[in-house]
Specification:
Blueprint: H1 9-18, H2 33-44, H3 56-65
């Protein structure tokens, strides 16, 4: 078994560009560090709460519901 680890989207893109296309592989993406850093920074700067969403479109819909919300992303 071989496990390759990349730490940034750029590293993953380079890895995929240089890897054997005929080789079966499973890719797992865990975006924890950037998301939690963004959330912690918002809370540290007096955000009352943070509502993570899956897509920008969902964030814009939430902005319509909570008019005074600030949209942020990583």
């Amino acid at each position: 078994m071989r496990i390759d680890v990349t730490f940034t989207p750029g590293e993953l893109k380079a890895y995929l560009a240089n890897s054997d296309r005929n080789h079966r592989r499973l890719i797992v993406i865990i975006d924890v560090l950037r998301a939690t850093t963004t959330i912690i920074t918002a809370l540290k700067n007096k955000a009352i709460w943070v509502l993570p969403v899956l897509a920008p479109e969902e964030a814009f819909e939430m902005k319509k519901v909570y008019g005074d919300a600030i949209l942020a992303g990583e």
